[in-house]
């Protein structure tokens, strides 16, 4: 059986980590693409030279031409610029919209059958613009944010409760911004919902509220610490989990920015919801029942996403069509 092909558009901090993880997990052969010359080639060679040590079989190629992504099964997009301290994800919009146009064209012309995972920020608008530019069907393009936001939530909860991260599940809905919606009612330790853990005294409502707030600002916390660039290990691990679910038809249930066509009362935009990812891409969108408070928080987050999309249409009227 031929190996799968994974193309990484953008070979910066996340792109390099994606390539390394894809190799360690033997997901397939990897093409690292970037507009910067030498960086994808250097990272490809460096990772290939680690393969004998770790004992994985995969080929790595650095590229500056879109022709090299032809035939890719999965494409993960990180091209663009990351946040700097003091910059919001939205500040990135103008720069990264242009990048999504060129990436979308590259995908449309060279790998229109791939399953595409977008990571570039501002996530919900970037994936929307990338779909427009690439013309991909809605089930073959998705944004990565929910897996990361949930992982941050799970880490903080496991730390609070002094239990294994493996036994903590968490749910984060909405756009990938500071008004994302961590759902405590649907988040559990081994099946026990967080509100019940407050009731039995494992934590207090105040501490839980603080964890929710820290989750919402999780990306900014890392930006402020790193000072140059944003998080890359956990974002890469999150996108690899989504790629693996597609490549191996695992049908995992993961939160992701998916194209809504009526679900949750929304149409024509990408926003974080629980989805099933399998061999057909986004195979299902799960519509969970939300309480009035949760629905209000979700709607607020959706409003922010809509604001970004309107701003995108103003910056580039061609996207409005
Ligand atoms: P960085 O290390 O700067 O890598 C970006 C790469 O993109 C660089 O190597 C650039 O040369 C390359 N690039 C720029 N323009 C183009 C282009 N037109 N075509 C191809 N390549 C190009 O950034 P990073 O890897 O740390 O982050 C990448 C993106 O992910 C940024 O937009 C971040 O804001 C975003 N990000 C999203 C999340 C989410 O959870 C959604 C988390 C962390 C980072």
What does this structure look like?
The active site is at 176 (proton acceptor). Residues 148-311 form the Lactate/malate dehydrogenase C-terminal domain. Catalyzes the reversible oxidation of malate to oxaloacetate. Its EC number is 1.1.1.37. Substrate binds at residues 83, 89, 121, 152. Helix content is 44%, strand content 19%. With 321 residues, it is α/β, with parallel strands linked by helices. Helix 1 packs parallel to helix 2 (39-54) and helix 5 (146-161) packs across helix 9. It starts with a strand and ends in a 6-residue tail after the last helix. Bound molecules: 3-acetylpyridine adenine dinucleotide. Residues 9-15, 34-36, 39, 78-83, 92, 96, 99, 102-103, 119-121, 123, 144-145, 148, 176, 229-232, 235 line the site of 3-acetylpyridine adenine dinucleotide.
């Amino acid at each position: 059986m031929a190996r799968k092909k994974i193309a990484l558009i953008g070979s910066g901090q996340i792109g390099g980590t994606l390539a390394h993880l894809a190799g360690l997990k033997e997901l397939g052969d990897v093409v690292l693409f970037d507009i910067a010359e030498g960086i994808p080639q250097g990272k490809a060679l460096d990772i290939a030279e680690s393969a004998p040590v770790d004992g994985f079989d995969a080929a790595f190629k650095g590229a500056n031409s879109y022709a090299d992504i032809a035939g890719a099964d999965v494409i993960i997009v990180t091209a663009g610029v990351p946040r700097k301290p003091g910059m919001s994800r939205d500040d990135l919009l103008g720069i990264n919209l242009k990048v999504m146009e060129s990436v979308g064209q590259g995908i449309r012309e060279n790998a229109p059958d791939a399953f595409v995972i977008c990571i570039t920020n501002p996530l919900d608008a970037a994936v929307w613009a990338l779909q427009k530019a690439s013309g991909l069907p809605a089930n073959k393009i998705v944004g990565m944010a929910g897996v990361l936001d949930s992982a941050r939530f799970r880490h903080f909860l496991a730390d609070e409760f002094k239990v294994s991260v493996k036994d903590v599940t968490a749910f984060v809905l909405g756009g990938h911004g500071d008004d994302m919606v961590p759902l405590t009612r649907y988040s559990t330790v081994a099946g026990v919902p967080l509100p019940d853990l407050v009731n039995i005294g494992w934590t207090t409502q105040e501490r839980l509220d603080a964890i929710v707030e820290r989750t919402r600002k999780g990306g900014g916390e890392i930006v402020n610490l790193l000072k140059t660039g944003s998080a890359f290990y956990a974002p890469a691990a999150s996108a690899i989990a989504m790629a693996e679910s597609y490549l191996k038809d695992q049908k995992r249930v993961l939160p992701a920015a998916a194209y809504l066509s009526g679900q949750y009362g929304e149409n024509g935009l990408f926003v974080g919801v629980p989805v099933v990812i399998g061999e057909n891409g986004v195979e299902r969108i799960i519509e969970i029942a939300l309480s009035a408070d949760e629905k209000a928080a979700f709607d607020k987050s959706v409003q922010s996403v809509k604001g970004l999309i309107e701003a995108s249409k103003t910056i580039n009227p061609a996207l409005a069509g």
